Amino acid sequence: MQYAKNKDRGPEHMGRFFEAARDDSANRAAWLMVLFSTIGTMCCAISIVMINTGLFMRPLGTAFGWSRSDVALSLSIGALTMVVANPLMGELIDRLGTRIVLILSQAGYGIATACVPFLIDGFGLTGFYIGFALICTLGAGSTIVGYVRLLSGWFSGARLRSRGLAMGACSSGVVLGAALSGPFTILMIEQFGWRGGFWGLSLFPLLIGLPVSIFCIREAPVERKAESGNAAATPLPGLSLQEAIRTRPFWLLIVMVLLISSCLQGMSIHIAPFLSDHGLSAGALAAITMFNALIGIPARLLAGHMFDRYFAPYIAVVVFALPATGALLMASYPVLAIGLAGSILLAVGQGAESDFIGYLVSRYFGLKQSGRIFGLIYGVFMIGVAVGPFLFGEAFDIWGNYTIPFTFATVGLTLLCLILLALPRFNDSAVEQPVSTAP
User: Fold this and answer.
1) Beta partners for 366?
2) Is 230 a domain residue?
3) Given this model, what pLDDT does residue 18 score?
4) Residue at 81 is within a domain
5) Which CATH number does the domain housing residue 398 bear?
6) How many Cβ atoms from other residues are within 10 Å of residue 124's Cβ?
């Protein structure tokens, strides 16, 4: 009966009916990709291994006599390998698509994580560093690098106004992964020692991330059309890497990501030992780790929603001012209560870092070579990840406290807020897809 009614209304009405049905189907598919991407980032190398490095500082120090800077150096080595690996992964994503790279990366870094205890048993501290280099090289493709390209494709055209929310939801997987893997790692270390901690972490990519990448992740229709070889297909819009390098936003982003990663990651990796030093028990540390990670989820969703409604850099000024305040408080009054408050402000600030960078890359430079561009910028981000935690550890070993590094974090985040105010407006007409992305 419904079909007969629609048929009686003529071909024009039927055309609108099927077009609306296609739009609804495309919207459902796009938001399903957000869900699968969120699960994927939950299992990436950053949220599972790198964020939890601080949890191994005291156990490895007790077992082998390694200093905190010794352990933090593993993160620096791993991050430096990502400096090289991220641009390569970005180029592979542009050539092969996101799904293949995700499958190889989740499997590779999961196996590497499980092998870390054997490398330490065989080669000591050197084996620990080799393990982190392997994890971060193979795991570079599992990070937000791949999902920025994927979701930018799905949220183009009519869905552009939801891109910030989509990326915020996707990047919330990082803190969701930290919320789940952090307490789980603490439990595994408590029950089975540091070896059990690494074996437990390897389960996330192998049992969750890998199946999702194989069975759920799919490229956006606009990308499939552009890569199909059809001469009539609309080419992907945006700038090439060479064109992007010649723009002012590119270089401002380079400086910004160095400040974000070195300051926020430096604080994040050392917040667990900071709180432990001031009397927080292992059980309470597990609880505050989960609490802070869960705070990051609504923070990312709210930030992404606000990015869609207002000029994103102005919103980011407010977001990054919060961890700057937390760093200043912890540098000035290093007591447990202030440390707990500072850790919460840090968690909120971290709730907008990777999705904000990816959002800016997609809005300033478009889809054309977004994998290469974001891979390069995220590689620079990893330089800060390599430098910040290591310098924080060195400062602690020298002065016996975190006053100096937290002070520098305050200065760096304040400078970041000033740079955000200097970013130009987006030029969507030059970098966005002009046609519908409905399948």
Assistant:
1) 238
2) no
3) 43
4) yes
5) 1.20.1250.20
6) 12
